[in-house]
Amino acid sequence: MLNKQNISQNSFLNPGTQTEASKPGDKWKISNSLQLSKAQWAEVLIDIYEHPMSFPGSVSPQAGELLRALVVNIAPRNVLEIGSYIGASTIWIASAMSEYERRNKLCCIDLFLPHTDNPWCPGVELIEPLSYIKNNIKKCGFQSFIELYQGDSKDLIPKIAKQIHSTIDFVIIDGDHSFMGCSSDFNLVEPFVSLGGYILFHDTFPDYCGVDGPAITLETKIFTNRDKFEVCQIYTEPLNFGFALLRKVTN
Fold this sequence. Notes:
CATH topology: Rossmann fold
Largest sheet: 7 strands, mixed
Keywords: Methyltransferase, Transferase
GO molecular function: methyltransferase activity
InterPro entries: SAM-dependent_MTases_sf (IPR029063)
Organism: Desulfamplus magnetovallimortis
Number of helices: 10
Oligomer: single chain
Protein name: Class I SAM-dependent methyltransferase
Strand content: 15-25%
Number of strands: 7
CATH class: Alpha Beta
Helix content: 25-40%
Strand order of the largest sheet: 3-2-1-4-5-7-6
Distance between the termini: 28 Å
């Protein structure tokens, strides 16, 4: 049973500005700032958002801008993305990291299984999402600092942590949205997160995103351990699927 006081923040819960019910064939509305950008990565993102499978599975353009702003300001050395889907969030993160003058690494984990039978875009398939993402990374010129790992996060998280020979400064958990999968990802990655490092959960408001694994993970693993983490739940637009940003304050 979810604690609605913690999860929903009912005194002020923004449902998002999209008032009409979502339906198959919908697309994310491209934000003005993304449209006006002349950066190559922005053009690639617009192309990704034009793909029928980007809605609603990819982070919205507005949520992507927030994600990018977080990474620009936190300036993590090592970033781990658990769940890349078709690569929109990957490009948002990488666009921020590309501004660093120092060496950095973005590691991305996904099963990269063929996407078929998507009820949001009937008849549309993406058989090789890994190739699709690799091609978009290359278009952006980000291939020098991004590593894509195909497989189960249970196997890959310890492997990646060992390979980078350092702690991880920023993690986004957006893979298996079941409680078992989400809590497993958190339990596996948390010991490798830097003191002062960040973990970002996506899809944290189940009333809007339709999944409850991230919310239950927060309720059972985080809100009961406030001495270890600072937590801020963040509303997202135009659909409030939600972020929860954690900062690790003790080991």
